[in-house]
Write a structure and sequence with these properties.
alpha/beta, Aspartate Aminotransferase, domain 2, 3 domains, 18 helices, binds ligand DCS, Aminotransferase_I/II_large
Length: about 500
């Protein structure tokens, strides 16, 4: 008998019939893997952006399909995830022209393309295709990504920051997420190793730390100061973790912030760099929203630029910066492209990172191509430049207007306060839930902000994520809503949200 009690049965063929019954029917099959014996770290890991509210939304979607009049709304509005094109955002023409030609290079020999594609897209595609070994986006590449594309990206970083970047430090990834996982996996040896993360945070970090069996060392962003990041808070949280016997190895900073939308000032960034330098921590700079800045008085500066401007170099400061094709004004998140720039690590550690990347062979080539386009868009004077910049500006200015409109509406709601989104794609309003709602949530066995979000979904079809999924100051309640629905739909969404909120408050405040 095998350990799981079924191997002898499996060893016999099902034609082994006893009194007309197969042997396998006598002992019910018990799958070797079940919920009680899978890796407990998988159970521990949570990812609210696709959590229970979204699962409920999917059920409602099915219900609507079967009977469109069964619910008090006629469509689901997915404001739970930063997925711009799923909500109607159009891709950037130049990027798609180059992508199409790279994926079907046979077109490059056809005269007709000159009437359909812009000349600079054709030229760019030809140059990219000829730099890819085998001219094939269907082939594996070097595990760090195609060298010529990494070189373009390094030049893009250099142009952005004014400091040099080395293509050998660039690892192309399927979105920023695999890069984050790789670095966390590299640094965490056991539960005693910790990584400092902002609270609220994007749950990729808490999930990855849980999966890799480390400890999340929280530091809190200050909601009353526009989700400010205070170095005094970093210091006291680090000291507390060290006193608990944790080896803190790295600090994560998300700038612009998700879910909080703040854009750090250069002065603040300098203090963060100095803190990491003094405490000998790796700085993990999540900069996927670097193009999404809306506040007039704010601008994005990369941590690489800040560290270099302070005189820190490859030899005395460890910094990993993450970027992605998923956000910005391009929103190509389904294509999965990203990079991490790994600086200030010994070459033997970099070789280990390369080995880890090699285990997955390479990131997808279409994502690599797109990442190179994001870091090297059309320039003034190129045929596509005018269209490119008008598409880019239209998307970014509309996102800015939507962020403002939604924040204003949220701030008008009773017991709700909301910081503006200086950048990124979300608002994270705080709700003071009345005692009655807290009790009703408890009776329903739900976390209070999940209860609010579920009621909102049931009443309006608007899908948002409870603040508890991002963690928050205990006793405070929030939700995260994207600013991505089309601008013309915003007034309807705001009206639905407002009327739901009023009736919710009426129901529970009495
Ligand atoms: N870092 C941050 C801060 C993010 O918000 C996201 C995605 C990622 C990394 C990873 O994205 P990619 O792997 O696609 O590059 N944001 C998720 C979110 O909060 N909504 O949509 C996805």
């Amino acid at each position: 008998m095998g350990a799981n009690g079924v191997q002898e049965v499996n060893g016999n063929s099902t034609s082994n019939i006893d009194n007309g019954k197969s042997l396998s029917s006598t002992a019910p099959w018990c799958p070797p893997i079940n919920i009680d014996n899978i890796n407990p770290k998988v159970l521990e890991c949570q990812y609210a952006v696709r959590g229970e509210i979204v699962a409920h939304a999917e059920r409602l979607q099915q219900k609507l399909l079967q009977d469109p009049s069964s619910l008090p709304f006629d469509e689901l509005i997915y404001c739970n995830i930063g997925n711009p094109q799923s909500l109607g955002q159009q891709p950037i023409t130049f990027f798609r022209e180059v992508a199409a030609l790279c994926d079907h290079p046979g077109l490059l020999h056809k005269k007709e393309i000159q009437t359909v594609f812009s000349s600079d897209a054709i030229k760019r595609a030809e140059s990219i295709v000829s730099s890819i070994p085998g001219r094939a986006t269907g082939a594996y590449s070097h595990s760090k990504g195609v060298k010529a594309l990494r070189t373009i990206i390094a030049e893009g970083i250099q142009n952005r920051d004014g400091y040099s970047a080395d293509p050998e430090d660039i690892f192309l990834t399927d979105g920023a997420s695999p890069g984050v996982h790789m670095m966390i996996r590299l640094m965490l040896r056991n539960k005693k190793d910790g990584i400092m993360c902002p609270i609220p945070q994007y749950p990729l970090y808490s999930a990855s730390i849980a999966l890799h069996d480390g400890t999340l060392v929280p530091y809190y962003l200050d909601e009353s100061k526009g989700w400010g990041l205070e170095v005094s808070e970093l210091k006291s949280r680090l000291e507390a973790a060290v006193a608990d016997g944790i080896n803190v190895r790295a600090l994560v900073v998300i700038n612009p912030g998700n879910p909080t939308g703040q854009v750090l000032s250069e002065e603040n960034q300098q203090k963060i760099v100095q803190f990491c330098k003094d405490e000998n921590l790796v700085l993990l700079a999540d900069e996927v929203y670097q193009e999404n800045v809306y506040a007039d008085n704010k601008k994005f500066s990369s941590f690489k630029k800040i560290a270099r401007s302070m005189g820190y170099t490859e030899r005395d400061f460890s910094l990993v910066s993450f970027h992605s094709i998923s956000k910005g004004f391009y929103g190509e998140c389904g294509r999965r492209g990203g990079y991490m720039e790994v600086t200030g690590f010994d070459s033997d550690v970099k070789n280990q990172i390369y080995k880890m990347a090699s285990v997955s062979l390479c990131s997808n080539l279409s994502g690599q191509v797109m990442m190179s386009l994001v870091m090297n868009p059309p320039k003034d004077g190129d045929e596509s430049y005018e269209l490119y910049s008008s598409e880019r500006n239209a998307i970014l200015s509309s996102l800015g207007r939507r962020a403002k409109m939604l924040a204003e509406a949220l701030n008008k709601l009773e017991r709700v306060s909301c910081n503006e989104a200086e950048g990124a794609m979300y608002l994270f309003p705080r709700i003071e839930l009345p005692e009655g709602a807290m009790k009703a949530a408890q009776a329903a066995g739900m976390v209070p902000d999940t209860f609010y979000c579920k009621r909102l979904l049931d009443a309006t079809g608007i899908v948002v994520v409870p603040g508890s999924g991002f963690r928050q100051v205990p006793g405070t309640w929030h939700f995260r809503i994207t600013i991505l629905p089309p601008e013309e739909k915003m007034p309807t969404i705001i009206a639905k949200l407002t009327s739901f909120h009023e009736s919710f408050m009426q129901e529970f405040q009495g």
